[in-house]
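As agreed, record minuted below.
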Amino acid sequence: QAQLVESGGCVVQPGGSLTLSCAPSRSEILFSAMQWYRQAPGRERELVATLPKIGFVTYADSVKGRFTISRDFEKNSVSLQMDRIQPEDTAVYYCYADGFGWGTGTLVTVSS
């Protein structure tokens, strides 16, 4: 059983914004290094953003300046804020917690 559940995926227009959430089954999971990945149709899963336990957040070049990853202990979630969304952002987005594994994914479709 997945210990992470993603939500927030939907159909969004190019140029729009969207926030994805990742809710862990246990709050202590949030203290792990957290990452968002995505997998577009016909492509391999790729790393989008990393939120380490300590240190700086990092992003894939393709989303740098448009996406923001953050951790909210009060809401018990890790979010991926997606701005200025582009058609190539269409993918299933997965949350990953170091030591705890993957979520089941949430689909983002960019279409006008």
Observations:
- The chain has no helices and eleven strands.
